[in-house]
Here is the input.
Amino acid sequence: MKSTAAEKQLFRAAQRAPYLGRDEERDLALRWKHAHDNNARNRIADAHMRLVIAMASKFRGFGLPLSDLIQEGYIGLLEAAARFEPEREVRFSTYAGWWIRASMQDYILRNWSIVRGGTSSTQKALFFNLRRLRAKLAQGDSRLTDQAIHQEIAAALGVSLADVQAMDARLSANDASLQAPVSEGESRTERLDMLVSDDLPPDEQATMMIDGQRWSDWLKEAMRQLNERESRIINARRLTEDGATLEELGVEFGISKERVRQIENRAMEKLKAALLTKVPDQDELVS
Here is the structure.
């Protein structure tokens, strides 16, 4: 992959930055820590841009722009400079390496796929080491099956076999747009068209919601045409999930079940007549 003009300029600037000796580095770090000297912090950061670029180059295999990786690494470098404790007598490059790598890895995990991956330490280790370990094992013994390779990787990284298999499948497939065409021509089909759903189309759902509310209002108005006993019987028999039996309502009102049936039929006729004044062509909806 060719470097852009901006990347080349960045490389040249990094190469020109002077190396810092141990004493000079410690002095700059103390000036930053105790005097908040931004110039001292920037000199430390600039002197270690070579480290950032070197680490970014190792992550180019994930297909993200090198300039973006360097930028994220620089953020990690500044974070390391802000937290560095020169009293520990550790060289800054040793301390900063972890922060630079962590910043780049977080960026890759956020941007490598639209599907967010695991962010635990074991998941990160699996994500960034699986390809390397897989290639190493396959090169060492070409007869190894995928199952055997996955088991070896799981043991090496201390993760479950299922996690290795899931991550390998994820790394082997690229994200696919739902607008990507499956077939071209006059009958062009996109992936989105092939997703099966048991739901009605949105326009039909909206129509049903509007019609349902309208019918509910009409039914409430029609129910006002019934007397108290008719209303009770219709509600118990037709408008509840577990409809009451004729015998149960007969006991409640002290009448025979046949009389309950007659009252129910009469009430239904009243409802039909009331509803037909609203929708005269929908006679079949009331039975």
